[in-house]
Amino acid sequence: MHHFDDIYPFSAIVGQEQMKKALLLNAINPRIGGVLIKGEKGTAKSTAARALAHLLPEREVVDECIFGCDPKDPKGLCLDCQKKGELKTKITRMRVVELPISATEDKVVGSLDIEHALKKGEKKFEPGILAQAHRNILYVDEVNLLNDHIVDVLLDAAAMGMNFIEREGVSYVHPASFILIGTMNPEEGELRPQLLDRFGLCVDIEGIMDADTRVEVIRRRQQYEEHPEEFLQRWIEPEQELRDRIVRAQKLLPTVSISDEMLHVIAQICIDMGVDGHRADITMMKTASTIAAYQGRTEVVEEDVREAASLVLAHRMRRRPFSEQRMDVQKVDQSIQKTQTGHSHQHSHSHTHSH
User: Tag placement on the chain: N or C end, fewer CB within 10 Å?
Assistant: First the structure.
């Protein structure tokens, strides 16, 4: 039996580069709006979610606060912490909060005791899963089997970083900023397009069709199970490097700027790909900025936009026959060239900060 600390290291996951990148980008910038991982059973989905929690740096929380508020963020404090004078703090690691398929809305958003509010004139809030998820990872397995309304509520909170509850005229709001990881098995039915569109990023788990890579997967699993201490020891350094890189990227992110030219490129790609609404453009801007920060840059370049396109657009293109759902890379390149020819004579250098 492994003890809790024996979590398979994130860096040791073989292949699945897109999935790993999507998870890291959401860890650096949860405002991207989560990631939906599609793939069959028995793939590295839940392994990756747990590995990510273990990888992320420990953080300071207000002791005995149900939300684990960040003491350094006075604006983001919950109502109780705002009232306290001196905040007692402790250091904890991030955890994975799982959402069971059977969860009711009250279980997810929490509940307000209306009678208490009317009698005593004060709000009594019973925290739900979104309260536990604040500053953690919210892992939703088989999101396509959840009630649509609950998925809506989750995605709302993920996008706003807040959970807002209203019952019979009594309302309550609390911080709910979390890394949202949803998974689904496409064989069990799709997610409705309006919900798909609201996940920031979407990746498909690739079935590994290369024998050498598959052998490596098996070999690592075997080493991990037979000699966990040695195996984990070997990955301590790569894990720490990745952790440092995430922290650097988080610090860099607010200073990343994106030029008008790059915004034009993003808009053109979205137009050419036939994407509805503006959510894709905005998510692409956030994602490209986060990729730049991850690469240690403060300026978004074309390569960032190209990479963002493959993570942001695959699930947003108007439904085509299944065979054509893959991202068309050449088409993205054409869009990029289009903007360059149109832009060269009126070169604009104004910059926007976007997060």
Answer: N
